[in-house]
Amino acid sequence: METRFRTPLMSAQEEYAGARTIEAGVLAEHLLATGERPVSATTAELRAIAEAGVRARRHFLLANLRLVRRLAGVEARRCGLPVDDLFQEGCVALAVALQRYDVERGRFSTFATMRIRQHLAEVCSLRFGAVTLPPGLAAQLRRVRGLQAELGQERGVVPGAAELAGLIGQDVSATRRLVDYRPPLAIDQLAEGPGLAEPSPEDPDAGIFAAQVRRLLARLEPDQARVIGLRHGLGGGEPLECGDVARRLGLSTSTVRRLEKRALDALRPLAAALDPRRDQPMAG
Predict the structure, then answer these.
(1) Residue 187: which of 216, 223, 214 has the closest Cα?
(2) Could you read off the pLDDT of 76-134 as tens digits, one per residue?
(3) 105 vs 12, 26, 100, 102, 223, CA distance in Å?
(4) Contact 119, 95 (CB under 8 A)
């Protein structure tokens, strides 16, 4: 297990004592900053209390990282976003939850779970909403993708729009539009990467080829271009297997293979007509 996940979970008594230590540390920090002395404590004593509060806060956070990781994994399977990104977002929500925690109202883990789940759900919806979907539709898309992933994992077959419509109480045609939705492709972003860099003295043709690739990808349908970019590492990452691309895009493996074949079939005649020294088709 990673070092950051080795801190054991806290008992109810430990949570109570830790929360009180954090509160005392916050008060001590305030008194040190303002110079106020409503209590008979020396500067050294206040500093010790403040440091104890910092240690207690750190222990709270470390002890709940496994909770964040588990919730991030569940949300990643639902919405298709990278689990590491959601883990970072979950850590932010964990810190906010600790700031708002009232030790007299129950266990911290219960309170934090609710806050982290809510935050991760909002992050997923906003990510989808940022690609031209209104927030309401983005939330529906997240729910449909979550059902697809959950049922697909159980059965080994991705459910169709008709079944999903029945599960979410939605019209079949509207559900099909959600299932078929794909975010718009940014060709410039897709074409960036180590293989498509600006020309250098060692490789003066790199810029020419990069521009040609951008033009070729722009001729493909968005889904085809995304698949080609991920399969062949054109976005700057490592080339992915069909199964990894399918999980990344929320598609079936057979659909990824079909899109890749269509894209390559479309690219071959276009690439053959390009002059390797110019960013334009060769004259006949």
Answers:
(1) 214
(2) 877 777 888 889 989 999 998 998 888 888 888 888 888 898 888 777 766 654 445 66
(3) 12, 20, 11, 6, 49
(4) no
Find residue 200's DSSP bridge partners: 203
Structure tokens belonging to residue 275: 């002059």
Apex 19 CA angle, 15 and 20, nearest 5? 120
The encoded tokens of residue 163 equal: 């079944």
Quick one: CA torsion of 258, 217, 243, 159, rounded to 10 degrees? -60
Q: Bridge partners of 281?
A: 274
Query: Could you report the per-residue pLDDT of 132-165, keeping only the tens digit for each?
Result: 566 567 667 767 776 776 676 566 667 788 888 8
Whole-angstrom Cα distance, residue 74 to residue 93?
Answer: 16
Residue matched to tokens 């005649």:
269
